[in-house]
Write a structure and sequence with these properties.
Layout lengths: L2 E3 L17 E7 L7 H12 L5 E9 L1 H15 L2 H15 L3 H19 L14 H16 L5 H4 L6 E8 L4 E6 L5 H7 L9 E3 L2 E5 L9 H4 L9 E6 L12 H32 L12 E6 L14 H21 L1
Parallel strand pairs: 1-9, 2-3, 2-8, 3-4, 8-9
Antiparallel strand pairs: 4-5, 4-7, 6-7
Helix pairs in contact: 1-2, 1-3, 1-10, 2-3, 3-5
Length: 337
C-alpha cells in the first residue's frame, strides 16, 4: 500500500489505470466535530481543481465528516462540482454560531469542554435531562434539510453516481452500522453525529444509534466493496486527528487530547491495514486481478493540533481558520501529485 500524506511524495497513477481512463477515486472523511470544517476546505479546493483525470466512485463520512460527504455528494449528482462547493460551504456557514445568544452559548459550551478535559470536577448531566441538546440537534436537522432534498436521494442513486456512505453505531445490537445511498436519511446523518454525552440517541428501524466515531471513522470498507470496474484505485483520506505525537503526554489536558486523537484513529488504521493486506494479495496473485484492484491510500492530514475542546467550538472565525487550513492542505496535496 502506498500511504502518502499531503505535501509528501506521491507514487503516481495506479498501474491499473491507462492514459485514456480517469483514475477512480474514493474519498473518506474522518469525523471530529467542528474540526471537520477543515474537511470542508479540503473538499472545496479539490473540487475547484477536479477534472477528467479523476472519477469519484464513492465518498464516506462519520459525524461532521458525514455532513461534508453528504453535501458534496448531493451537489455533484444534482449539478456538478461548483454546486457541491457551494452546498458544503453553505452548510458550514449555517452551522457557525450566529447572533449574541448563540455565540454566548457556544462560548460556554467550549469553556466547559476545556474545563472537563483539564480535570475540573463538573456536574454530570445527561443530554436526556436538559432540553438544550435536542434544540441543537433540531437546528442541525433544519440546516441539512434546507440544503438537501432527502426525499429525492433515492432517485439520484444509480450506476453513474458515486456511492454515499454514512457511519453510525447501533447501540442496541452493539455493532457499527453504515447507511448507504438511498438509506441515507436526515436521521442517519444526525445519528452519525450523536455524541453520547451531548445528544440523545437517534432511533432508526427500531434501534437506537450513536455517533459513528465509535466504529468506522470514517467508513472505508463499504467503499472497497464496489464492483470490480468501480473499485477505487486511490483512496483519499481526509484525516482530522493527528497520527503522530512528539514526546510524552504528561499534563491532564495533553493526555485527554492524545487519548481523543488515538480513539479517533484506531478504526481508520485497522481498515487501512486491511487494504494493505489486500494489495499484497493482489500483487502476489493470491487474489484474481479481474476482481480485485490495488488501492493506493493518500492521506490529507490537518497537520496542526488544536485542543480537543475546540471540537465543539462553532465560532465563525475558528471555522474559517479551519476551512482555510483545509484549502491549503488540499493545494499541497494536489501540487505533490
Amino acid at each position: 500500500m502506498s500511504d502518502s500524506s499531503a505535501g509528501g511524495t506521491d507514487d503516481g497513477v495506479n498501474a491499473s489505470s491507462t492514459a485514456d481512463e480517469p483514475t477512480r477515486v474514493a474519498i473518506a472523511c474522518q469525523g471530529g466535530g467542528s474540526h471537520t470544517a477543515f474537511t470542508c476546505g479540503v473538499l472545496r479546493e479539490l473540487l475547484k481543481e477536479w477534472d477528467d483525470r479523476y472519477e469519484l466512485v464513492g465518498i464516506s463520512g462519520t459525524s461532521g465528516g458525514a455532513f461534508n460527504a453528504l453535501a458534496v455528494w448531493y451537489g455533484l449528482v444534482t449539478e456538478g462540482p461548483e454546486r457541491a462547493r457551494e452546498i458544503v460551504g453553505s452548510v458550514w456557514d449555517d452551522l457557525a454560531a450566529s447572533g449574541p445568544s448563540d455565540r454566548w452559548t457556544n462560548a460556554v459550551v467550549t469553556s466547559l469542554s476545556r474545563m472537563e478535559s483539564a480535570g475540573v470536577p463538573l456536574p454530570a448531566v445527561s443530554p436526556y435531562q436538559v432540553p438544550g441538546p435536542e434544540t441543537g440537534k433540531q437546528r442541525i436537522r433544519e440546516i441539512l434539510e434546507t440544503h438537501i432534498d432527502f426525499e429525492g436521494i433515492p432517485d439520484l442513486c444509480g450506476r453513474d453516481a458515486p456511492e454515499l456512505v454514512v457511519g453510525t453505531v447501533d447501540v442496541n445490537a452493539g455493532v457499527f452500522e453504515t447507511f448507504v445511498d438511498e438509506e441515507v436519511t436526515v436521521d442517519a446523518v444526525l445519528a452519525s453525529a450523536a455524541v453520547p454525552n451531548l445528544f440523545e440517541a437517534v432511533e432508526i428501524n427500531g434501534h437506537l444509534h450513536w455517533d459513528g466515531l465509535f466504529s468506522q471513522n470514517p467508513p472505508v470498507n463499504d467503499l472497497m466493496g464496489l464492483p470490480p470496474d468501480r473499485k477505487p484505485e486511490e483512496l483519499w483520506v481526509v484525516q482530522i486527528n493527528p497520527q503522530e505525537f512528539e514526546g510524552e503526554p504528561s499534563t491532564t489536558e495533553v493526555i485527554a487530547d492524545r487519548r481523543n486523537e488515538l480513539s479517533g484513529n484506531i478504526s481508520l488504521n485497522q481498515e487501512l491495514h486491511f487494504i494493505e493486506r489486500v494489495n499484497e494479495w493482489v500483487e502476489d496473485g493470491t487474489l484474481p486481478a479481474d476482481k480485485f484492484v490495488r488501492t493506493d491510500v493518500r492521506r490529507i492530514q490537518m497537520g496542526k493540533r488544536f485542543h480537543c475542546s475546540t471540537k465543539v467550538d462553532r465560532d465563525p472565525a475558528f471555522l474559517d481558520e479551519l476551512r482555510e487550513l483545509g484549502a491549503e492542505r488540499a493545494r499541497e496535496f494536489l501540487a505533490a501529485r
